[in-house]
Structures
1.
Amino acid sequence: MSRIVYVNGAYVPEEDARVSIFDRGFLFGDAVYEVTSVLNGKLIDFPSHMRRLTRSLSELSMAAPAGTDELLAIHRELIARNGLSEGGVYMMVTRGAADRDFVFPPDGTQPTLVLFTQAWNEVRSPEVENGLRVAFVPDLRWGRRDIKTVQLLWPSMAKMEARRLGKDDAWLVEDGMVTEGTSNNAHIIDREGRLITRALSNSILHGTTRASVLRLADEAGLTVEERSFSCDEARAAAEAFITSAGHFVMPVTEIDDVVIGDGRPGPLTLRLRRLYMEEAARTAL
Ligand code: PDD
């Protein structure tokens, strides 16, 4: 069944949606995006996604396509029109359409705003029971990974490499240290029960789920160390997990062919997942 999508002010069937071939998102990857999870028809961590969108736009001197209230209304309208219960809403903002030029088009160029829904079923997915197997792949992305741009070719290639190796996903590695997953933040729990995850910088995306989970971990009395961890530390971890919209808190049970813990999702990981899901349900919009 065809979805109803949103393009520049109009709700249209997906096959009727049109964006210019001169759009800078298409020609230059000159665009930012957000993916917000939907559970029981409601948006998870929406204010946090909007704060990051605002920051991404500002770092790229890109105009905001609409205010936060209007964007929330569009998200809700799309969820309603598509009867979405579980899945996500993808929102993309580009610098707009203009003659192809490395110089940005003049101020006042209309940004392009596109949103669509995608249904998925994470809550009952087998990975929650079994955990993910991840491979190490070099991190060859550009240096501003804190901006959520649509330039996702390397993450996509890294994920393909992981699949070629028979794994579920890749953890990206720079200078012997793990940066993050292809589309998620990477976390380990060491044998003393400390949660270790890379500190915020330009090297990783500032995950909305990461922020909530670190706060919940702290409130639950866990020691949280925001610092880089090496591939060796990852292999030696007692537990490991990823965080993202879409996967929430997802256990990792194998890293670079090494079984983590007893090969089952770890108890602290499952506790954090439960805490996150409870809060998500409570605060969903
Ligand atoms: N990805 N790191 C990267 C590189 C990501 O692309 C993402 C999200 C995250 C986690 O951020 P958050 O918790 O705010 O979703 C970390 C989205 C889900 C995607 O590209 O589909």
2.
Amino acid sequence: MYSEKVMDHFQNPRNVGEIEDASGVGTVGNAKCGDIMRIYLDIDEDTKIIKDCKFKTFGCGAAIATSSMATDMVIGKTIYEAMEVTNKAVMEALDGLPPAKIHCSVLAEEAVKAVSYTHLTL
Ligand code: FES
């Protein structure tokens, strides 16, 4: 029911953790299941390129896998490009998710969009 890529990112999640003194932090809750996601971004002040991105979640396996992929996808992009990364693109990169788990994939996208920047003027 889960693709090999989903299982890989669930079992070996990339970019788990926190960034100390992050440029921005975004936290969202999932209206459907109540799970929580927090994303940390380290951004180059001049280029606005995301140098590092980490996440922590109380979400399920699908949330872990999609956040792992989403954080991989936004690293190296500018913060403006990262805003364009949709949960659909993340799901496609993971070769799909079961329909009942699509709401889990929204957490990472929403958390990136919810980031408030502490040390940065955009
Ligand atoms: Fe809550 Fe998947 S069930 S994030």
